[in-house]
Amino acid sequence: MADKCGPLVHLWGIDVASQLPPASATAEELTPLLKAMFTEAVPFIETLPAAAERGDGSSPWKAKGSKTFSRSAAPVELYERTVSAAPLAAAVEDHKPPGIDAKHVGSEMWAARRSVHENAAAAGTASWTEWTRCFKDEHAEAEKEFTATVVSTTRHRQWDLAGLELAIAGTTWTDWTLKYEESVHKLPAPLRRRVFPPGRRAATADPAACSLAMVQRQRSVPPESLAGRGQKDSSFSDVLVVKQQPTTSLPASAGTTPSGQQQPAAKDSRVLARADALARMTVELNLRTVGAQAERLERELKELVMRTGQDKEFRKAHEERLTDAWREIVAVKAQMESVRGRQDDIQTDFERCQRETAELRQLLRREVSGLRDLIDSMASQLDSLPTAADMDEECLLRNAQENCTGETVPSGKRIIAQAPASTRGRKNCASRPLGRRIQEAISSTRRWHRDHKSTALPDAEFIANYLKQQSKRDPAMAVLIQKAIQKRLQYGRRPRASSRPRSLDEFCRDVTWNDVIETVEVVLIKDKDVAERMLSK
């Protein structure tokens, strides 16, 4: 029989965010989802063969014998069914469930259990009321009570479906229950706990048939919801139909939960239940681990083959370029070795260049100093030369003297002729404007100040040379500066400042160059008007 699959009752589950309505959704809004679930689940479980049809091969379910349990009076018939990957992939292509890729869908193995129980609240069986409470109304609480490995249950969402009636395949279903709950199962070490967040949908058929159907769907928990909880998500789906006439329980399940029947967690059966669950789960986990490793190795092998092929093509196309690049690398390494060997020679040459540069700077400094001295000497000589007006005046005096009666007084001609020569410097300075004379004195002092920074002469000798040069250039200006320096020394009450010096050298012995600079600033710059009055006398 060809399998025809729907999009809901499978291991890939239902996306809570996109396929489950919010808790405030009405019964009308939930009707399409419930009808689709029951339309897919009920026919799926009803393909289980009756007792007389087990061997004819018309059913996709295969009988696997039966099993008995000490706490149950009814034997449990076991069946298995494998849904191939092709119809599952077709269902994904047709219905497009969110987050599911048809290329990654594999086959599903379903395990079915069927048992017939007496309708009585007695040991080894259960009444209809107990079945309703444990599998419909309080399924999570009953699962924790009957299953020793259940650590906790959490209800995330519940919908109000009061008064909802749905007609599905000729049967009217009422008393609907829809819950979204989470169950945490503990496993023996070193396995971590597994979380099952199932959405439970249950309904009761009309009183004439007096039957109860339940659909339980499981979707893998998003990994981010398990962060920091030390738990692992799990996938599980089952369909359960409980009918009162005939009294039959037909549960069918698929996923990672073993097919052993749940028993009350009594003290005498707790160890046996744990051992049985551990053995079955260990085998199943090992099989699934081996399968996952085989798939991973297959993917890695394909990727390796693909990359190896790409490497060969790349090397074939770029082998020559790689060879040239390698040769250049080797050449650069060899050159670097030779450069490292010449580091000491480079350092020696650098130090020699530094010494030669320092010597050149000293020589240049001496040359510049000598050049300054020559320029100052030339400037002083130019300042002492008479002007054109002085030359004209001297010529007029000579002509006038020649016209005089020089023969009666010969000595007078000599005295008159010599008089302009002795007073020539004083007349030359007196003929220039006072402002120009003051500015020339300031400029000359600035030149001497620059020379003072590099001279090796003591201040006394340097100041004496300065005053001598000023007296040659402008005697009156030299006298004015010297008198101002003398007053400064007297006001400062320096030793020997009160006595009159007998020579210029003795005068300069108590003077510093800083005194000269400050005196020139006060007399010629700050008190310029006073200096002009004194020079004009």
UniProtKB/TrEMBL annotation:
Residue intervals of the DUF3074 domain: 110-197
Disordered as annotated region, ranges: 248-268
Pfam families, A to Z: DUF3074
InterPro entries xref list: DUF3074 (IPR024500)
Biased composition (Polar residues): 248-264
Domain of life of the native organism: Eukaryota
UniProt-listed PANTHER family: DUF3074 DOMAIN-CONTAINING PROTEIN (PTHR40370:SF1), EXPRESSED PROTEIN (PTHR40370)
Name of the molecule in the record: DUF3074 domain-containing protein
Organism expressing this protein natively: Hirsutella minnesotensis 3608
